[in-house]
Specification:
The protein is mainly α. The protein has eight helices and three strands, in the order αααααβαβαβα. One of its GO terms (molecular function) is xylan 1,4-beta-xylosidase activity.
Length: 228
């Protein structure tokens, strides 16, 4: 809030945050943070003790439910180890969530979904800077992924037995350098073309916003060439 000039000081920020219902701060230093100004705001009468109780109560309720104040032997989460994180059960649940969260905006001529029995008989072109670059598939604040669990569009289709040709067209999301000849060569021989575009953390992330929603660099040109 201070960095965006909504407030003029950490004290103002503390008052505004508590008043608005905020009860958790992601601090970047124990001496230079907002919540350390709360006692001063309380002493000045800008906030009340009841407000603080109301903000803190759900935090401690959640911590109690997680067993943070129980002996480790009583906490079921204490027995979990890294083998659970990528267990087949959790991976299957993640897959189910991904499948159920797809949003189809337009489906001309019923092209989608692709049928598994047609994958081997058709020639697929997977193009774009996001077609086979695992590093750019994750957004800001995403955990560091394990490479063996990353399935790019190209890798996913190949694992399903599809006949796939690939052309990035651009080396990275900024797409400052674009090879139209590479794209046209791959797209021209395909029955189905998947164009994988976007931004990613290289282009926009926290403290690195953009002034418009346009595709970066030559990505729009890449898309138009693929369609034509």
């Amino acid at each position: 809030m201070l960095g965006h000039h909504y407030t003029q000081s950490f004290l103002e920020t503390a008052v505004a945050s508590v008043t608005a219902g905020c009860n958790l701060e992601l601090s970047y230093g124990m001496r230079n943070n907002v919540f350390m100004r709360i006692p001063q705001a309380l002493a000045m009468g800008n906030i009340t003790l009841q407000m603080l109780h109301d903000r803190v109560r759900p935090l401690f309720y959640t911590r109690m439910r997680l067993g943070e104040f129980d002996p480790p032997a009583m906490n079921p989460y204490s027995s979990l180890d890294l083998s659970v994180v990528q267990s087949p059960e959790h991976r299957n649940l993640s897959l189910e969530a991904a499948v159920k969260s797809f949003v189809l905006l337009k489906n001309v001529r019923g092209t989608l979904p692709l049928r598994a029995q047609d994958l081997s008989s058709q020639h697929f072109a997977v193009v774009g800077p996001f077609a086979d670059n695992p590093r750019v598939l994750f957004g800001d604040y995403a955990p560091v992924p394990e490479p063996q669990y990353i399935y790019t569009p190209r890798r996913g289709l190949e694992m399903l037995g599809a006949n796939v040709s690939f052309a990035a067209g651009c080396r990275e999301p900024w797409c400052r350098w674009y090879s139209r000849a590479e794209l046209v060569r791959v797209v021209g021989a395909a029955d189905v073309v998947l164009v994988c575009l976007g931004t990613g953390v290289d282009v926009e992330t926290e403290a690195k916003d953009r002034s418009d929603l346009s595709l970066p660099g030559h990505q729009l040109e890449l898309l138009q060439d693929a369609v034509q």
